[in-house]
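From the pipeline queue, job 12 of 40. The input is one protein chain; the requested action is below.

Action: predict structure.
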Amino acid sequence: MSDLQFANSDFVHLLWPSALLVIFLIRTRLSQSKELSAFISPHLQSRLVTRTRNTSRLWQILFIAIVLLSGTIALMRPQTPGGNEKLVSGRVSADLMIVLDLSKSMLAEDAAPNRLNRAKSEISEMVEHLSGHRVGLVGFAGKASVLCPLTTDYGFFNLTLGNAGPNSITKGGTQIGKAIRTAVTAFGPGQASRLILLVTDGEDHESYPKEAAQNAKDAGIRIVTIGFGSETGSQITMTDSQTGAKSVLKDKSGIPVLSKLDGETLRELALLTEGAYIPAGTAALDLESIVDEHIEPIVTLGTKATTKVQPNEHYLPFVLISLFSLIAAVWVGHRPERVLP
């Protein structure tokens, strides 16, 4: 027991009032007979008075002393060194803001059924694998808007995602810089690891996305970019939902609109923030792997594992001793007998 130590050693000072209490009980309990004799003769005491024996009184005081002593030791929390315990501290969850391009070019059918619906389907499946992380949604075209704030209510997120479309953003175009700045603001204050998942198929229209990405980096936010479409450019073919007729999207001058992916810009945005660029093209996405490769690692980086010696506690036996001694003190004190003085 040479390694015995006390976690709350300051409680040792309770022994002083405990000792004074025991002395007070000894003096008062044992002097009761003398005080009684001053009013009642010894002959009448045996007939009129019911009292406990001096030995029972001493036992009661002894049990009370044990209650006070063992209770004080329990409060001091005696300990001996135990085994090692691995403790993980720091951030344990991530905030993921999905920034989704809702421009009309996302209705192109080069990815069945179209780029937007396929992206929404993949995002919905990815959310199922987040396991406690918060997720939000920013939609953008010519401007950006927070469609769903950060939440762990994945049902509400999926409902918002399902309703998102070109009509959610009234202004046309592709303003990636605005979308990133809106997402950074939407994160708000917090200690969780933060990640932007940017899903787009178009070129940026002078919204200074690199400066926005630098702001995200300064805020400790990484960006993973997913590029849809072809970097050489392709026409946007869409199907009328009512007639089923196919048509090529044209601008105001009647010239077919080319959807051209600026993969170089997306790659720079990702590298600038130590994220990743995924050129999806028109192939199927595996967003579950994005969770495993890009989201879970930043959560791991946000945590810190330490090893701590977890002591063995020994206060419980003293608590039990104190409890049983209290019961014994009450029991001894309720055994009155008629005794001769």
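Job complete. The two ends are 48 Å apart (CA to CA).
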